[in-house]
């Protein structure tokens, strides 16, 4: 039998045995969230596995699910029609934290042409993976997920106006076994359920703040890594909710607290061989790796919007916080935007430390791959590594706010060539919407600062 026939036959057996009754049919939206429908498993097996539909506004919304204007792909004038959600049966997996449930990821297709929608996050990453494949390379990646756990539930916090937020712990719990033992009622099911869902979890640990956690997943092919990340992020929120707690991936939930990142590790392979490794080089870096990293550095501002997509994202970039401020690289140095890891070994790789916990992994990884491809094709030379405290200089700064990052995205000839004008303009408009919405709101800071004294 063909691959999809085997998957369907196995699922049908589980449905008939009463083990599975629900199929989550999911796409990834612009914000990296899982969107879709819950199918009765019997109906899915009978035919819905071929395709279903969704409103095309799902790839033109803000975080609030509003429908801002200014998108070329969809609008009130065009009537908000349908996209096709095409299940990729190779992604079917159990969802152990939900009873009798499995999940499948979908490609998003144009309703009329059945071609992939260019600005769908999954399509954007697939295109860059395909470009690398044509060069003879496979991209391997891993992401680190950082987030905060809170004492109260999502509903409690929302009803209280998101005020008086209390993290689940009272002190910095970085690597702290005693404190993280107190959190095992949340973290243990996260690890075990994700593992049983086929996601290769390595570990969890306390991070460098009160209530801050880190989840690490083993490296995999780029598409799988993005999928693991999106599913894990959704699972963390659902499992925390099931146990009466809230989890946030907001990069900077309080100005006095350390922010949350999502570092991305990456390397290129070919036929099972690490292309980034050269045993003759003092740091173990091949010429391909050096050009790839030079591309990451040269074009970092261009794809910063994909790594830091919201106003809040930029509040994290502060000196002395372990969050980077400069577009430089260094050897095993956590103060730089790009860190060389595993130097001198076959596991040599580059860690991009710029992305925040709010990144869409499909977009962030796609932006990095596009920049790395450009570095290789342009034969760029890698500048020497920075030594010492990278915070002690003001050169090569990461864009300091979303307007600056949006301008860099709009003006990127590299990304326009790699992804297409439609994609660049679409996500530049998304950044613009975020800016417009923020600028229209009166914040607590403004009121407290000026209520009496202005």
Automatic annotation (TrEMBL):
Molecular functions (GO terms): ATP binding; glutamine synthetase activity
Biological role stated in the UniProt entry: Catalyzes the ATP-dependent biosynthesis of glutamine from glutamate and ammonia.
Q: Which GO terms describe its biological process?
A: biogenic amine catabolic process; biogenic amine metabolic process; glutamine biosynthetic process
Report which superkingdom the organism of origin falls in: Bacteria
PANTHER family in the record: GAMMA-GLUTAMYLPUTRESCINE SYNTHETASE, TYPE-1 GLUTAMINE SYNTHETASE 2
Describe the family membership recorded for this protein in Swiss-Prot or TrEMBL: Belongs to the glutamine synthetase family.
Q: Name the species this protein comes from.
A: Ruegeria faecimaris
Keywords recorded for this protein, A-Z: ATP-binding, Ligase, Nitrogen fixation, Nucleotide-binding
Q: Does the keyword DNA-binding apply?
A: no
Give every GS catalytic domain span: 121-454
Needs which cofactor? Mg(2+)
What are the GS beta-grasp domain coordinates in residue numbering?
Answer: 18-113
**Name of the molecule in the record:** Glutamine synthetase
